[in-house]
Amino acid sequence: MSALAAVSAFALVLTSCGGEDAGSSGSGDGGGDQLSGEVKVDGSSTVAPLSEAAAALYAEQQPDVNVTVGTSGTGGGF
């Protein structure tokens, strides 16, 4: 169950980065702002495939953000 919670939290963080506020002056096409920078994900090898899939989907939406997924074990994510 904790793996599901970790994936859900990771997905929430990724999706919250690309949204538009109701008061913003975006074009209304749902594209949102383009971001840049780096996100590092690390943790259990159990959730690594899910983290890699989420990183790939995020890269499609935000190509200027470098997402690195590491697998240092369960304690590494903490």
Structural commentary:
- The protein is an alpha+beta fold and 78 residues long.
- It has a domain at 1-13 and 38-78: 3-Layer(aba) Sandwich (D-Maltodextrin-Binding Protein, domain 2).
- 37% of the residues lie in helices and 15% in strands.
- The chain has two helices and two strands.
- The protein has helices at residues 2-16, 48-61; strands at residues 37-42, 65-70.
- It has a two-stranded parallel sheet with strand order 1-2.
- Helix 1 packs parallel to helix 2.
- The longest helix has 15 residues, at 2-16.
- It is globular, with a radius of gyration of 14 Å.
Q: How are the strands of the largest sheet arranged?
A: 1-2
Number of DSSP E strands: 2
Helix share bin: 25-40%
Distance between the termini: 17 Å
Tally the helices.
2
- What is the residue-averaged pLDDT? 75
CATH superfamily of the domain at 1-13 and 38-78: Periplasmic binding protein-like II
Can you tell me the CATH class of the domain at 1-13 and 38-78? Alpha Beta
In the predicted model, the low-confidence regions spanning at least 5 consecutive residues are 22-28
Rg (CA only): 14 Å
Helix/strand/pairing category: alpha+beta
SSE string: HEHE
Kindly identify the CATH topology of the domain at 1-13 and 38-78. Answer: D-Maltodextrin-Binding Protein, domain 2
Q: Per the principal axes of the C-alpha atoms, what is the gross shape?
A: globular
The main pleated sheet reads as:
2 strands, parallel
CATH architecture of the domain at 1-13 and 38-78: 3-Layer(aba) Sandwich
Percentage of β-strand residues: 15-25%
